[in-house]
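Each record in this resource describes a single protein on a pair of labelled lines. With that in mind, the following record should read easily:

===
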Amino acid sequence: MTRCRLCSTNDIDGLVEEVAQALWASFPRDVAGTWEDAKGYWQHVMRGHARLTINLLRDSHTSHDAGADSHV
């Protein structure tokens, strides 16, 4: 039985951090700079967006796939 990282993570804070950094990286460099440049407020905002996104995906993922043995 293979479970996706979204469903099986034991480190939600680590996943939030990874998603937050990926969200930040999706902005053009000339607008956003590096994750380290973001600091304080913007890192907090991106972590909030990441946590919300993860929660929404987990809720919809598990409710639509209840009882499934594996996820993509």
